[in-house]
Amino acid sequence: MTRSKTKKLIRLSRSVHRWLGLVSLPLVMIIGITGYYLNHSTLVSSILPYSEDRGDMFMSPHPDGPREMAHLLVLMSTVWGRVPVHSIRTVDCDGFECLTVSQVDDSRRRISLGVESGDYIVRSRYLKVSRARDGSLISFTIYWDSLLDRLHTGDVARGKYRVLWDALCLALILLSLTGMVLWLAPTLRRERRKQE
């Protein structure tokens, strides 16, 4: 390889290396932070607030029937809009029965309605929001375990951002290759000069 071609290769490698470093930095930070969490989840969980689901807001031990079902369906259309329903069932919420509706596309998205109180809980993969009958906020919980795990794997929105993580992997490979060129080319040049 001639001297001018080597200089062009080094210049190109520097440019690619700098830009890839800048572009991939936020994603590398996310993967690094979430990777730390995955290795030290008990330490991180002690810092981040987390609360278990509580059913004590549901005051009635038995659902009354059609009135609660209608209220649940109104809640469902208000919160989610028009979506197909996977199931509507009566479940135990810490000793109290409540009505729960699940979506077809994601069984983790649920609405649970306390029969007598009218309070309800909206759950998704990462959040639990408890509201009173009038819509005022009772509690708000983030499921950090699930959120950070999915951020690390790139499966935050059910695989929609996986292409971004694949692009990051390719960028890191290219970043490594350009880093090797930037280190190797001057080293080889010095070795050649020593031999001459």
Name some characteristics of this structure.
196 residues, alpha+beta, 2 domains, 6-stranded antiparallel beta sheet, 6 strands, 53% helix, elongated
Taken as a percent bin, the fraction of beta residues is 15-25%
> In sequence order, what are the helices and strands, one letter per element?
HHHEEEEEEHH
Largest sheet: 6 strands, antiparallel
Count the E strands: 6
What is the number of domains? 2
Instruction: Please state how the strands of the largest beta sheet are arranged side by side.
Output: 1-2-3-4-5-6
Give unreliable regions as ranges. Answer: 53-64
Distance between the termini: 16 Å
Range of helix content:
40-55%
User: What does the average pLDDT come to?
Assistant: 73
Number of helices: 5
The rough form would be described as elongated
Radius of gyration: 27 Å
Q: Which class of secondary structure composition applies to the elements?
A: alpha+beta
What report would you give on this structure?
The protein has about 200 residues and is α+β, with helices and mostly antiparallel strands. A 6-stranded antiparallel β-sheet has the order 1-2-3-4-5-6, with helices on one face. The chain has helices at about 5-40, 40-45, 65-80, 145-155, 160-195, and strands spanning about 85-95, 95-105, 110-115, 120-125, 125-130, 135-140. Strand 3 and strand 4 form a beta hairpin. The protein folds into 2 domains: about 5-45 and about 150-195, no CATH class; about 65-140.
Structure in a nutshell:
The protein has 196 residues and is α+β, with helices and mostly antiparallel strands. Helix content is 53%, strand content 19%.
